[in-house]
Specification:
Blueprint (H helix, E strand, L loop, with lengths): L1 H23 L4 E2 L2 E2 L2 H6 L3 H27 L6 H20 L2 H19 L5 H37 L1
Antiparallel strand pairs: 1-2
């Protein structure tokens, strides 16, 4: 009996390892467990702090480009040059944020969300049509009730006010 149980436990642990390997696809696996986005986001380093500060400074600079840069740099008098600089600064800030642990966690979260979206069973045309009509009817019924209550309270208050 114990030999069969040991055999089943071995097969189960092998199956979990294979399934974990299939699910992780490039994600870090430590001690048999997948690293979640929350675990990645909670880790921090000096590099993260520097990148967050750099991104904040660049975004603040992007807000000031339109007002101050034309006074210091002649080509910035052109609107399209300023727009290009603002977009470039915004993209640079996003790249800085993407290189942080929180940025990696966000990318992991987006990948997990894409996997979950593939698992969703979307309603068919008939179900959508049916639920849409049910919703419209319920909105009409509730709207009618609110209108009747509004008229009743207007009449009731009108009696006391005169």
């Amino acid at each position: 009996m114990s030999n069969n149980q040991d055999n089943l436990e071995t097969k189960l642990s092998d199956a979990k390892a294979v399934a974990g390997g299939m699910l992780s696809k490039g994600q870090h696996v430590s001690a048999g467990n997948q690293t979640t986005a929350v675990e990645i986001a909670k880790t921090g380093s000096v590099k993260d702090v520097i990148l967050w500060l750099l991104a904040a400074v660049v975004l603040i600079g992007a807000t000031l480009v339109n007002q101050y840069l034309p006074g210091y740099w002649q080509p910035a008098n052109d609107l399209w040059v300023r727009i290009g600089i603002i977009v470039a600064l915004f993209v640079f800030a996003l790249l800085c944020l993407a290189m942080t642990n929180q940025g990696r966690a966000f990318k992991t979260l987006l990948k997990d969300a894409a996997v979950e979206l593939r698992r969703v069973t979307w309603p068919g045309k008939d179900e959508t049509f049916q639920y849409t009509w049910q919703t419209i009817v319920m909105i009409a019924v509730v709207g009618l009730l609110v209108w009747l209550l509004d008229n009743f309270f207007n009449w009731f208050v009108g009696i006391f006010i005169g």
